[in-house]
Amino acid sequence: MTISASAPAKIILFGEHAAVYGKPALAVPLPDLRVTATVLPHIKQKSGLWIHALDLGQEIVIEDVETVLRQDTPHPLALAAALILQMLGKPTPEVFIQIESQIPIASGLGSGAAISAAIVRSLAKLFDIALDLAVINEIVYQTEKFFHGNPSGIDNSVIVYERAVYFIREQPLEFIHIAAPFELVIADTGVRAPTHIAIRRVRELYDSNMPLVSAVLDEIGAIAVQARQIIETGQTEALGVLMSRNHVLLQQLAVSSPELDMLVDAALAAGAVGAKLSGGGMGGNMIALVSQDNRERVLAELRRTGAVHVLSAVVGGEG
């Protein structure tokens, strides 16, 4: 019997970078865009646990859990597997885990956290053990530290719980009620931008000009508070103005890019109600708030402007 487990992509609506500094952020899962981890017996005579990440072009071998945990900089996927095996008190299984992902790498959609979550879930299934979501979330967060250095924790939380989240660092998660569904267009610049680089850039800016950057972070946090109220009351068209203002603030933090700004401008020119970068920035994705009337026009304009991947997604409606 084939054992498999999956985890979704996520998109941050509001609060990028400010969340690292204790401000609120809003993020939602994208359940139709997923990573799947499939546990298979070894095809050839091999020892240890092998993880084959097709989209990363990598094969990771784990011979012994303790060896991985003693390393100063273990591979994040090896760490995810080692942490769950240690927590379960299980030996390293002689299996092959194949990772297949629909989520673009380093584009702000949470690919790293989703891969880690899928690995953790697949190994728990292998041993027929049901894990509490809080346990999975903590393990994935530990692996996120190796991907991003000082992550806010929002990616792993949204991906593991698969619910819209209002997030403040080191405070209990709050799940959001989406009163009325709304539609986003997501466009990928094609520029790979690891989140830890953008986080470091903001930290350097913060250290060099704390009063200015603190004011920007405060306003981003205030926008997230307003956005939650709007989402929970169903007045979602009002999100557009907040999105566009949020993008300006992220430009001030030097985490936008010419490619992102071009796509934001193209979406607005095509009729989007609002648009902003999403995620770490410096590349990756932008999002635009659209309606049924202008969705296809916005999609077409983003493709014409040079977006590598463009998709639309309905947020909410899950009750």
Query: Runs with pLDDT <50, length 5+?
Result: none
Q: How does CATH name the architecture of the largest domain?
A: 2-Layer Sandwich
Helix count from the secondary structure assignment = 10
Instruction: Let me know the largest β-sheet.
Output: 7 strands, mixed
Question: What's the arrangement of secondary structure elements?
Answer:
Layout lengths: L2 E12 L10 E17 L7 E5 L4 E5 L2 H6 L5 H13 L6 E7 L9 H16 L6 H16 L5 H8 L3 E3 L6 E2 L6 E7 L6 H14 L1 H24 L5 H14 L5 H12 L4 E5 L6 E6 L4 H11 L3 E7 L4
Parallel strand pairs: 3-5
Antiparallel strand pairs: 1-2, 2-5, 2-6, 3-4, 6-7, 8-10, 8-11, 9-10
What can you tell me about this protein's structure?
- With 319 residues, this protein is α+β, with helices and mostly antiparallel strands.
- It folds into 2 domains: 3-167, Ribosomal Protein S5, domain 2, CATH 3.30.230; 178-315, Alpha-Beta Plaits (2-Layer Sandwich), CATH 3.30.70.890.
- Helix content is 42%, strand content 24%.
- It has 10 helices and 11 strands.
- Strands 1, 2, 3, 4, 5, 6 and 7 form a 7-stranded mixed beta sheet that branches.
- Strand 6 (165-167) and strand 7 (174-175) form a beta hairpin.
- The chain is globular.
